[in-house]
Design brief:
Its EC number is 3.5.1.16. The chain is an alpha+beta fold and about 375 residues long. The strands form 5 sheets. The chain has a 6-stranded mixed β-sheet with strand order 1-2-6-3-7-17, sandwiched between helices. A 4-stranded antiparallel β-sheet has the order 11-13-9-14, covered by helices on one side. It binds zinc ion. The site of zinc ion has 5 residues, from loops.
Length: about 375
């Protein structure tokens, strides 16, 4: 097989635009990158399966497998990027540029570049000697709905012992993060002339009661869902946006609030939603049929690494750093559902993610390739 250099691979990967966005005008298929990774990994002897992700706009996951049997190691990452800020990049985001010991381009850091690190590490791993399977997973739509990882977890196709998600963590393993969910609360009142309040139902007053209940819940989350691993050491609830009414001389007929909740790992999404609905019960009794709650998009659950196979100790040993926690959400909770020990651990810094002129420092190359090689050796050989 002709050797393709690390920089050539990186250049190829950055050249495929794979933007994910809720807005259809920005949203792109990731298929060309998926096909590229499939070809490159099949050249190493991996078996490839590509799956269309249901409910997404022409998006695909790719699973590559080397070897057979139980357990093994999964190296996972997302194939998509966020949109780029037009006018704020000083270069073409899809053309890899090397300068100042850095690689610039959209997805260099978060996190398409991780696949270039994997392909580089594979050049030096004696794959034929592995006793347990090695998997590489590229998912779709992490930056929006996480539909790719959600779908992959539902299928339960594989059960590795350990998984690494190569998000940019400066090569320090992340074992926990909070989740995120967002809700809208809609109050349907009955509009009328303000001179006689009895002739209508004021939607702002309905939401006023609801907000009182949510603030009580906010305090309850603060008191009952503490977690000192996080810099904000409790589950949070934030009232984010409110709109209602059309004039001071009318009874407000319609009012809508959006709020978010960030659960700690001890608070599963279903329980958080149940707490919200219980908090709102008195408002429903007072105003039957006038208040409704809806999720704005699928929840991103909180994440805590299970450690049944010793991944935490292995990562601490190989990186020389203790595992920590993060403030951002990842695909960790979904990969966790495969039943494997899962850590977020990769090159580059979150500081450069989602930024114009995104880059990765080249000083990550050697330690990352060494880390991946050692990880495969410890888990699969
Ligand atoms: Zn990412």
């Amino acid at each position: 097989m002709p050797q393709i250099t690390f920089l050539d691979t990186y250049r190829d990967i950055i050249e495929f635009p794979t933007i994910s966005a809720f807005d259809e005008k920005w949203d792109m298929t990731n298929r060309p990158l998926i096909d590229y990774l499939a070809t490159r990994l099949s050249d190493f002897g991996f078996d490839i399966s590509i799956q269309n992700v249901p409910g997404a706009r022409n998006k695909y996951n790719m699973l590559a497998k080397f070897g057979s049997g139980e357990g093994g190691l999964l190296l996972a990452g997302h194939s998509d990027t966020v949109p780029f800020d037009e006018g704020r990049w000083t270069q073409d985001p899809f053309v890899l540029r090397q300068a100042d010991e850095r690689l610039y381009g959209l997805g260099t850091c978060d996190m398409k570049g991780f696949f270039a690190f994997i392909l580089e590490a594979l050049q030096t791993i004696p794959l034929k000697q592995l006793k347990k399977p090695l998997y590489v997973l590229a998912t779709a739509d992490e930056e929006t709905s996480m539909a790719g990882a959600r779908f992959f977890a539902q299928q339960q196709l594989i059960k590795p012992d350990m998984a690494i998600i190569g998000e940019p963590t400066e090569l320090k393993a992340i074992s926990r993060h909070k989740g995120h969910m967002a809700h809208t609360l809609t109050a349907e009142g009955q509009a009328g002339h303000s001179s006689d309040p009895a002739r209508g139902v004021n939607a702002i007053e309905i939401l006023h009661q609801a907000i009182g209940q949510l603030l009580t819940l906010k305090q309850q989350l603060h008191d009952q869902y503490r977690d000192d691993d996080f810099s904000v050491p409790y589950a949070t609830l934030n009232l984010g946006h409110i709109h209602g009414g059309d004039g001071e001389n009318r009874i407000c007929g319609h009012c809508q609030l959006s709020f978010d909740l960030r659960p700690v790992p001890a608070l599963p999404d279903e329980d958080a939603i149940r707490l919200i609905d219980e908090a709102l019960k008195p408002v429903h009794s007072h105003y039957p049929g006038r208040l409704s709650r809806a999720l704005m998009y699928p929840t991103a659950p909180a994440f805590a690494c299970r450690n049944e196979h010793g991944l935490v100790e292995l990562a601490e040993q190989l990186t020389g750093q203790p595992v920590g926690s993060a403030n951002y959400a990842t695909e960790g909770p979904f990969i966790n559902q495969l039943g494997c020990d899962t850590l977020i651990l990769g090159p580059g810094s979150i500081e450069q993610a989602h930024q114009p002129d995104e880059f990765i420092d080249l000083h990550y190359v050697d330690p990352t390739v060494t880390l991946l090689r050692n990880m495969v050796k410890h888990v699969c050989a």
